[in-house]
Structures are given as C-alpha cells and as structure tokens.
Amino acid sequence: MKLFAFQKPISKGLPRGWLVPFVIFIFLCSITMFIWYRQTEHRNTMLQRHTDDVAMQASRRLQVFIQSHLRVAAIFARRWATHENRDFSKKRFDEFISVILSELPGYHSVAIVPADLGPGWKVDNKGRFSDKVIYPDRQEILKNALTKKDLVLSPPLKTEKNEVIFYAVLPLTRDDEFLGFLMVDFQASTLINDCFQSRIQSEFHFMIHDETGLVFHSSSDEGDLSKLEETIFSIIDFPVQNRHWRLVMTPYRRNTTASGWIETATYPVFGLLLSIGLSCLVYLLSNRMEMYRRARDRALLEIEERKKAARALKVSEQRYRNVFDSSTDALLVLEPDGTVVEANPAAGRMHGFRTDEIVNRPVQNLIAPENRRQYQEFRKQMELGGSARLDSRNLHKDGNVIDVEVRGTRLKHDSMERHLAIITDVTEKRRAMERHAMLSRKVLMAQEEERSRLSRELHDELGQLLTALRLEMGWIEKHMSRESSKEMQAFINTTQLVEKSTDELRRICRGLRPPLLDDLGLEPAIRLLVEEFQERTDMAVNLDIALDESAVDIPPEISLCTYRILQESLTNVRRHSKAGAVDISIVASEKELKLTVYDDGTGFDMDSAGNPHGCGIEGMQERANLVSGNLAIRTVRKQGTRVILTVPLKSEGKNDQNTAGG
Fold first, then answer.
1. What domain range includes position 98?
2. Residues of the chain below pLDDT 50
3. Of 472, 490, 513, which residue is a domain's last?
C-alpha cells in the first residue's frame, strides 16, 4: 500500500499510482480480445459452411423445380401434337392453356408458333401478369430447337415493366409431320420465389445469373443490401436444360449476430469487467493517501474562495447601492404582499414623500384608487411569468395624479423572494400623445370640411358653367345647317365630351363629399359607391347591408367615418390586391355598427417597410379613433385581406364622439 501511495507520477497532471492499474487493464483486455477474436472466427467459419450447404440444396431444388415445369410443358406439347382426333383448333388451345395458367405459378404466357414461323396463337396469364415481351433472338432459338428436336431454353429477357422472364421452345411433331413450335414464357420472380422457402429468403440474399444477364434476386421485406455480409458468400454453378446458371448466396448480417451472441459476448464482457475491477481496486489502494492530501488542499482553497466571494459581494452591494440611489426612475423593492421594503430617492421625489415615509407601508397608498385593482392583476402576472408591465396612475403627496409606466420583475433580495417595481413618469409623454391625437382629429375634420367646400364649389360653379355650355350647344345644334356631315359629327363629339365632363365632375364631387350621405343617409351612399366600384373594376361584389337608419340613430360623424374607410378599402383592393371578388357586410344594432370588407387577393405584409398601404392604413386608423372605434386588419399572403371596423353606438359613446369631433 505504501508503494502505491508514494509512487512518483510520470507526467504532471496525472494522479499518483496510475501506471500499475493501467498496465494490468491493458494486459487483461488484450487476453479478452484474443479469446473473442478466436470465437468470432469460429462462428464465421460455421456460418460459411451453413451458407455452402444451403446454397447447394437451393441449387438442386431450383434445378429440379424448373425441370418439372419444363416437363409439364413437354407433356402438353406431346398431348397437343398426338391428339387422336387431330383437334388443333384455337378453342381447344385456349381452354387447355387457361387451365394450365391458372393452376401452375410462374407461367407468363403460352403460344403456338406455326411451322412457317408466322403469327400463331397466344394466351397470357392476365390474372397475374400480361405485360408485353420483346423476343430479340426468337428466330435463332426456334431454328435451334428444330435442329436439336428437343426443348431449348432461352436467355433471360425483360418485359415492359422491367421484370425478368425466360421462355422454352418445344418442336411439335406427329410421326414425321412437323406441326410448329410450342413457346412457353416463365415469370422468373414468381417461379423462383415459389421454389425457395420464406424462412431461407429472410436469412439469405439470392442472386441467380445466366450467361447473358441477371435472372433473379431476392427482395424480402428485410432485404436491405447494406446489411449483407461482405466476406461470407457461396457461389454454385449448375445446368438448366441447355443453359448454365450461377447461384450467389449471401447471409444477412443480422443472422451473424442473432445466433449465439450471448455466448460470444460472454468472454469480452467478463474480461472487461474483470479488468475494470482489478484496475479500480489497485487504483483505489494506491491513491488512498493522496485523497487525504487533496482534502486538506481543497479545504484551504475553499477558505480562500470564501474570502474572495465576501470581498466581491461587498463590492457588488456597493455598486448596486450606487445604481439604486442614482437612478432617475423610481425603484421600489416590495414584499409579495405589496409592502415597500426599500425605495430610492427618485421614488420620494416623484411622489413628494421622504424615503422613510414610503418604506414599510403598502404600495397601494401611492396608487390612484381607480387603478388599485389593476395592481392586483399586475402582481399576479409577476408571480406567473416573472415580469409584467402596467400603465397606471399614481398619487402625489399634494393630491395631483401622475401618469406612470410600471415594469416589474422578481428578484432575490437579502436571500428572500422580492418584487422590483420600476416606475417611470410618463405624464408629459401622455399629454404629448393626446395633443398629437387631437391634432390628427382636427386635421381630419379640416380635411373633410375642405372636401365639402371644394365639392360644393365645383358642383355650383363649374357644374353650372358646364350645364350652361350644354344648353348653348343644344341651341346651336338646332340652328346648324345639316348639309356638312363632318362639321355635324365634330359638333356631336364636342357635345359628348361636355356631357362626359359633366358626369366626371359629378363623380369627383361624390368622391370629395357624397351628397347622398348628407341627404339620404349611409345605406344609399354605400350602394352608389359599390355600384361605381363594380363599373370601374368589373369585380364580383357581394354587398350585405342590415342597416335600419329609422330604428338605429347613427351620428353623421360615424356615417362619414364608415363611408371613408370603405372607400379607402375599395381603393386598396382595386390598386394592390389583384382580387377577383369582394365581400362587404354592414350590420348596425343598438350597441354598435360593424363594417367588414374581405377580398380574395394576394394580401400583403403589414410589417414590410415598403408597404404601399401604409399611409392609407394610418388614415383609416385615425378615422376609427376619431369616433372611438376599433379597426382590425387581418391579411395573409396569397389568401386575401379582411378589414373589420367596429364603432360603438351607445349614448355614452355618442357624447364622447361628439366631443371628439368638435
């Protein structure tokens, strides 16, 4: 034990006593791997012998199986040629061959070729396969069979579906009379699959080659070629009638590890466990004294680390105190129940209290009464999500209300769970936003007033001039000479241009300020707008209006807002959406008015910097805010866009809207 404990390390950084356990571990592992290698070699030798035996049996079975099918074909040829009544009719041939094809697997088709090698009779096995075959060396094989006066087997061929077949040719003779040939096609995959057992095909991969190409290869459900053994295989050459075939058989790798893996794994597992156990025992004995020395060094190091941590904590606390006290935002450290644990000077200045007047008191004392309920929800959000945000109103000591933004988070303070509230005074910011909103409303109202004034002036001044011009041209037309057709046609064209200008002026005036909206109400104005949109775009528009202005009082500013948002939506559809149809729905109840515009166009990206809809959307949003309404736009690329406007119609809402509009 002393030898191991005070052994010198060979290299710096390695534990004492590592060399002897390492040598023992390597020695035992070497013996274990040698025994395992010998066992694996023995198993591979046995698998090779098993593969050779199965290949020999499979080749013999295949040879006998194919010869039996050829013998059946020879028997049929003899019976056909020696029929005592000499009934060589096609009907007898079809009936006889149909029975053979239905009873015997592997027969692709059977044909009779006449003695002059012309077209004969053929019956396909349509119940299983009937794809066409091309016979490149047919004439040569027929002559070879006639010369030998015996059955001749062809090389493998491929069908239109890329399947392999081979065919047999038998000469038909009656006494000395030559009647023709019997040609039988065999489906290689079906014929050979029936020859081999499914268990053998699941353990081995088969490939059968002819002198000219591939005849068959196995394709079992588990036959992944990447799982074949690379070093173990068996090759058997055997004759089939006049052909020579080669069988190549390879076992799957899973069969190598599936049989006897427990016995083969016993040696390496036992040797590895023994090596690890002895090495660990020697290592533990050699390092017992080293453990005591390291424990002492570790204790000294921990003491030094604690001193460093204490100094760092002191510096961190001082840094935290400096940041906490110098922050321009109000900072409050709260108990989970809302009691103020700590407050910075900015919190006292914001609320008009001294810092000691805020500490150890409920934070609800600083919150306006109407916002204290929101604080409870704010605290629940911090408990669930770890952070939260709230727009609230706090109280100054003199009773004034302060608009604030509160951001909260959880933290550890004095090893206890606390809440940190960061309060920012946003009173001036909110006033600026209100002034901006009021200015936007005034701009919109001024825009509508200017449109109304411009519409009236265009209609009254320019409209009267065009009407007077049309009357004067009508008088001239009555007193003109009709002898010159060219002058008369030019005058008619001029009259049509004046009428077209009058119609265009009316359309512009309606766009600036629709008179129907002021005279007849919202529904007639919308129907006229939709009709003009259909005439200009030829789009299919489905308009659904459930609006009874006699039962529901809709203020003029809401009617104007609804009309303008619909007008802007249809303009966007015409310019950008590439839509084929538009659905418009307007529903009004005692509580609210709802406008929905849906198109099946390309949609657009609301967050895109180059969005051409940007200004229009902002204007629509401003108009909705003007009447305390809500505007929602939902769009998906290549699926269309939906614009939804909801405006409250309650009496309280009307008063607020009138105030905002004025």
1. 45-253
2. 1-14, 221-222, 258-262, 609-614, 651-662
3. 513
Q: Is residue 74 part of a domain?
A: yes
Q: Is 201 in the same domain as 102?
A: yes
343 occurs within a structural domain:
yes
Which residues are CB-neighbours of 180 under 8 A, at least 6 positions away? 112, 113, 114, 115, 120, 171, 172
* Environment class of 132 (CB within 10 Å of its CB; exposed 0-12, middle 13-18, buried 19+): exposed
Report the CATH number at residue 420: 3.30.450.20
- Sheet with 630-636, strands from edge to edge, namely 540-546, 581-588, 592-599, 640-648, 630-636
Residue 320 maps to a domain: no
Q: Are 579 and 573 in contact (CB under 8 A)?
A: yes
Which residue in 348, 320, 62 sits closest to 196, CA to CA? 62
Residue whose C-alpha is closest to residue 482's, from 474, 493, 491: 491
Distance CA 442, CA 451 (A): 14
Span 398-443, pLDDT tens digits: 878 888 888 888 877 767 778 888 888 777 777 777 677 677 667 6
What is the residue whose two structure tokens read 């173990």? 232
Distance CA 603, CA 191 (A): 61
Predicted structure pTM score: 0.38
Dihedral of the alpha carbons of 273, 274, 275, 277, in degrees to the nearest 10? 80
Task: Answer positive or negative: Cα dihedral of 489, 494, 499, 503.
Answer: positive
Give the count of domains, the chain. 4
